[in-house]
Design brief:
CATH class of the largest domain: Alpha Beta
Number of helices: 21
Strand content: 15-25%
Structural class: alpha/beta
Helix content: 40-55%
Number of domains: 4
Distance between the termini: 72 Å
Radius of gyration: 56 Å
Length: about 700
């Protein structure tokens, strides 16, 4: 079984068991070696005593043989030596003659002169006799051996360790020994000491293990449990042990950091989901919003493109809703919208789609209208339903509506065409004080003017009918101009000023948009050169660019050539691209943006919130600014839905480290709200209208600062 199969607590218990066995084994070995050392020490003591005594006997023998002392003196001295030599507590020596004859024995003088084999009252041990007989025949004439022999004080025979040595140049054998049970008290004393030490060490080891378990195992188990809870989604728990300074503290702090990331991810996920909801639904009425309606209408156009089956779109505009909001407040306004939406739902069939397009505007799409459906009768029912009084607390409010109608394919084959033209028809109906109007009633007049402008557009670029104006953008932190957006104007010799909303779509439809973009880039580069020559310090200049021009393979080369011609650094330029460009292949767009930004140019996404981009796309794009579309700013001070969308976009941009630009600021209240929501940059008529070159130069010379 793998070690990883056990828990940390089990591993620690196993470690303690191994440590305990190791301590016990070590103590037993230490006791055994102590026993051996004690026995060896005793043997050495015995050997030293015998050798010293043997040396004295040899000396006495030499004196006796030399006649220095008499036989009687020799006998007396030998007797005194044997009887007076003691060591240890009860140690003594004895002298044997002729191998087994007891010559002198201080403890048993009654045995002196007797042979061991002849002692009747105390039969000699065969081991004892054999040992004495072997001594003369072994090398060194000395040996240790063990046999059983009673103590001098009497009693049964017990184990005795004997050492005997033959005295050199004589027949004497000098011997001594110890009774092994005399060592037992010493062994017991040492055993108790080792046992006490072992118990103390075991207690310390177990106490240390318990302390480690409390300090390591319990925190790890707790942190493991908390991590499991985090993986299950419980991010509200408080991470413990973060105050530890060891590895446990590092783990706890890492887990706390992981928890913070989970909380942040949950917040971003909720924000993303909220943004996704706001991208498709109106939070007040819970209907589709303009984006979702546009996508739904686009899908139906594609589905019916070959069959050319009719699709009708009704743009329903509530009159005077903004005035009612100012008088009654946002809550009452929302009540009116919800009540109106509920009434319209009751008129819908399975082939109808209803959406809230803006503050007081609804959209109704009729798919595959059955032949027996009376369109005008349905429109009349919608108008009558809306006009019914709505009860608001103590008031009854009656509102009117105008409806513009477009039809696919007659009025367009793009969703924005059908919705936009239906809105134009609704506005025209209001001007003419009609309840509803078909766009086809306006089309003939528009087509005639469109064809004329189409023909004049190409020559306008050659005849200098176009010119540039500059609208400043203000930094809300420094309250000073941050940059300026370049806007193109057309002064038609016959019709006067033509709105970009008119001639830019014409340029796109006629294939002239790339030429128009090229003219603008040249004009901006030329103007920047003039400012540089005049020593005028100007902020970054933003240029609106079509996706068609931007996605051309030679765009970077053309861009570099234009600005190199006028010796203008590209770091002075910012390009504004609409969200529609992001629909292209993401890898291609990322690579394109990266190459363009490497030239020093900054990139902004214009009209953000009205296109098809998503958070997953935006977070991967190398851009610098997001520009919130003017449609979300217009009613920011009265429309809670627009406020929430703006808040969500700002939060998302801050999370992605992007600057946010709000365009179309026209009231002090809008500016104040944007300050509160931490918007970075603003532009609009409240701060400055688009300025001519001379007026913009004058503004730069004034060091203008907006009120903080």
């Amino acid at each position: 079984m793998l070690l990883s199969s056990f828990t940390i607590r089990q591993k620690l218990i196993g470690l303690v068991i191994i440590l305990t066995l190791g301590i016990i084994t070590t103590s037993c070995l230490a006791f055994y070696f102590s026993y051996q050392d004690t026995l060896t020490g005793k043997k050495e003591q015995i050997r030293n005593v015998i050798q010293a005594s043997s040396s004295q006997i040899v000396f006495l023998n030499r004196q006796n043989n030399a006649g220095t002392i008499t036989a009687g003196d020799w006998e007396q001295r030998i007797h005194d030596l044997i009887y007076n030599t003691q060591y240890g507590k009860d140690g003594y020596i004895y002298l044997m003659a002729k191998e087994t004859q007891v010559y002198l024995h201080p403890k048993r003088p009654d045995l002196e002169g007797k042979f061991l084999e002849d002692i009747e009252d105390l039969p000699a041990s065969k081991l004892m006799i054999d040992g004495f007989k072997r001594i003369p025949h072994i090398q060194g004439s000395a040996q240790f051996w063990k046999f059983y022999w009673p103590k001098p004080s009497g009693g049964p025979a017990i184990a005795k360790l004997t050492y005997a040595q033959q005295v050199p140049d004589s027949d004497f054998i000098l011997g001594t020994g110890i009774y092994l049970d005399d060592l037992t008290p010493l062994y017991i004393k040492r055993g108790l000491s080792y046992f006490s030490i072992t118990l103390a060490v075991l207690f310390a080891a177990i106490a240390t293990a318990l302390l480690i378990a409390k300090n390591i195992v319990n925190p790890i188990i707790n942190l493991s449990s908390q991590m499991r809870n985090l993986s299950d989604g419980d991010i509200d728990q408080t991470i413990k042990y973060t105050e530890h300074r060891d590895e446990i503290g590092q783990m706890a702090n890492a887990l706390a950091c992981f928890r913070e990331h989970l909380i942040e991810n949950k917040r971003l996920r909720y924000m993303h989901e909220h943004v996704q909801f706001l991208e498709n639904f109106d939070p007040v009425t819970r209907l589709y919003n303009r984006r979702a309606m546009g996508e739904s209408l686009e899908r139906e156009i594609v589905r019916n493109f070959e069959s050319q089956d009719s699709i009708y779109f009704l743009f329903i505009r509530l009159d005077l809703l903004r005035n009612l909001t100012i008088e009654l407040g946002d809550d009452q306004r929302d009540h009116i919208l919800v009540e109106t939406a509920n009434r319209l739902r009751q008129l819908l069939s399975i082939n109808h789609r209803l959406a809230r397009l803006s503050e007081g505007c609804f959209g109704l799409m009729l798919i595959n209208k059955p032949e027996d459906t009376d369109l005008e009768a349905l429109i009349t029912s919608v108008l009558n339903t809306i006009e019914k009084p709505i009860k608001l607390e103590q008031l009854h409010i009656q509102i009117a509506a105008r409806i513009g109608v477009t039809q696919f394919p007659e009025d367009g084959d793009q969703q924005f065409e059908l919705i936009g033209r239906a809105e134009i028809a609704a506005k025209t109906a209001r001007k003419k004080e009609q309840g509803w109007m078909y766009f086809s009633q306006l089309r003939e007049q528009q087509v005639e003017q469109k064809m004329e402008l189409w023909q004049d557009l190409s020559s306008a670029m050659e005849n200098d009918q176009f010119y540039l104006v500059f609208q400043p953008l203000f930094d809300l932190q420094s309250n000073t101009p941050k940059s300026a957006e370049t806007l193109l104007r057309w002064d038609h010799p016959k019709h006067g000023p033509i709105s970009p909303a008119v001639f830019v779509p014409l340029a796109e439809q006629s294939g002239l948009i790339s030429r128009l973009d090229h003219w603008v880039l040249n004009a901006v580069a030329k103007q920047c050169r003039q400012w540089i020559d005049k020593d005028i310090t100007f902020p970054r200049i933003a240029i609106n660019l079509s996706g068609i021009s931007f996605l051309r393979s030679d765009f970077e080369t053309k861009l570099q050539e234009i600005f190199d011609t006028y010796t203008v650094p590209l770091s002075n330029i910012e390009l504004e691209l609409t969200e529609g460009v992001l629909i292209e292949d993401l890898a291609r767009i990322q690579d394109k943006l990266k190459r363009v930004r490497e030239t020093g140019i900054r990139i902004s996404i214009d009209d953000f919130g009205t296109g098809y981009s998503s958070l997953s796309r935006i977070k991967n794009l190398p851009v610098d600014h997001l520009k919130i579309d003017k449609s979300f700013i217009d009613d920011l001070d009265v429309n809670n839905q627009d406020l929430k969308i703006v808040q969500a976009i700002i939060l998302m941009a801050q999370g992605l480290q992007l600057k946010v630009v709000a365009e179309g600021v026209e009231t002090e209240r809008q500016l104040s709200i944007l300050r509160e929501e931490k918007c970075d940059i603003v532009q609009g008529y409240l701060l400055s209208r688009p300025l001519s070159v001379s007026d913009y130069e004058a503004l730069l010379d004034e060091d203008l600062i907006i009120e903080g």
